[in-house]
Every structure is written in structure tokens, then in C-alpha cells.
Amino acid sequence: xxxxxxLSLWLxxxxxxxxxxxxxxxxxxxxxxxxxxxxxxxTPAAEEPPPPPTVGTRQDHFTAGGVSFSAVEVGGGRRHRxxxxxxxxxxxxxxxxxxxxxxxxLVVSRSELQLVLAAGGARRVPLLVLANKSDRPDALHHxxxxxALSLEQVQGVPWxxxxxxxxxxAGLAEGVAWLARExxxxxxxxxxxx
Length: 194
Ligand SMILES: Nc1nc2c(ncn2[C@@H]2O[C@H](COP(=O)(O)OP(=O)(O)OP(=O)(O)O)[C@@H](O)[C@H]2O)c(=O)[nH]1
Ligand SMILES: [Mg+2]
Fold this sequence. Notes:
Elements: H1 3-11, E1 17-23, H2 30-37, E2 57-64, E3 67-74, H3 84-89, E4 93-99, H4 106-119, E5 127-132, H5 142-148, E6 159-163, H6 172-193
The structure holds guanosine-5'-triphosphate and magnesium ion.
């Protein structure tokens, strides 16, 4: 089923999920963010052990702005990155997670993001970048992360960046609300063209 059909069903009250792929280097915090997006009740982050590194892919679900998301996290370790493109091509939206407290890996993170966007070809789906670990005192400001990733050069893709913390939950609501809004707007404008 295509995005437009899914959104029609969802806007019309049908309970359908929009698929989002969650990418980013290993240790950036993808599993932790998805855990933090789980609806309550959930165990407070401080009481849970950190998630194990993701091997291959993991499925998850969350809801934001009235939209139900079916999320696929693809492991960020080097050997899993070959899987990113395939999952990106099948997704309705991309969440790209960056460890804002690890400036040395931003160059690698930028080139991996550029590769995956290029692999999408003409397919343009919304991109939400989460500058994660903003709770850490050494974390870069999200605008510095945007600059390091050269986001201003990303063309034809609606994108948004915000500071986030899987540890405290900060920034998550803002980020996913943007994504939900963006998907609704895209749907509404396309509908208006027909
Ligand atoms: N301080 C802090 N630590 C975090 C945050 N998010 C994740 N971490 C820690 O970062 C480490 C990696 O988190 P994961 O969620 O496993 O990272 P991942 O991106 O899923 O990694 P892979 O599955 O290997 O690709 C863990 O020790 C987490 O506890 C955050 O917002 N703040
Ligand atoms: Mg993981």
C-alpha cells in the first residue's frame, strides 16, 4: 500500500500505520529513543539497563500527533549499514539519529546520511534528525550538528532537526510532532493537486 492510500485510511479514521525507518551510527541512541517513545506506562529510563546493540533490524511502534508509526531500527554498526538503503527505500519517513556528544564521528555520520539519501533517488520522504544525548554537558548544539551534517545542502527533502535526549525524553515530542505534521501536510497538498 502506498503512502497516500495509508494516509487516506488514517485520516479517514482507518487504523493504519505509517512506516518510519530509524537510522544512525551505532551508539547514537536509536533503540533508546524508540524505548523512550513507547507510550506509558513504561519503566523509567534510569531503572532500565541500556539496550544491547541492535543486530540487523528491530521493529517497534509509537504514536505521535494522532499518527501510528511502525518503526524499523536498522543497526548502526558498520556491517549493518548495507541494509540502510533497502529499508530507507521502503519507508514513508526517516528518523536519523546523531550522538551530539560525539563530534569525532559526525563526519562519518554525514557521509552515511548522504549515501542513504542519494540511494533514495527521486523518492523524497520527510527527514527528522535527532541530535541525541543533549542531556550531556559536552553535547553540541543542534545547529552545530546541522552544520556538521551539511543539512542546508539537502534538497528536495523536507527536513527538521531538534535536540533530543532519550535519557530525559526532551525534544522527542517536538520532533515526532513535526514528522506527523509533515506527513499530514504532504498528504493534504497532494490531495489538493488532484
Ligand atoms: N546520556 C545519554 N545516553 C544515551 C542517550 N541515548 C542513548 N544513550 C546511551 O548510548 C548507548 C547506545 O544506545 P543505543 O540506544 O543502544 O544506540 P543504538 O543507536 O541503538 O546503537 P546500535 O543498535 O548499535 O546501532 C547506551 O549506553 C545508551 O544508554 C541519551 O539521550 N543520553
Ligand atoms: Mg540499537
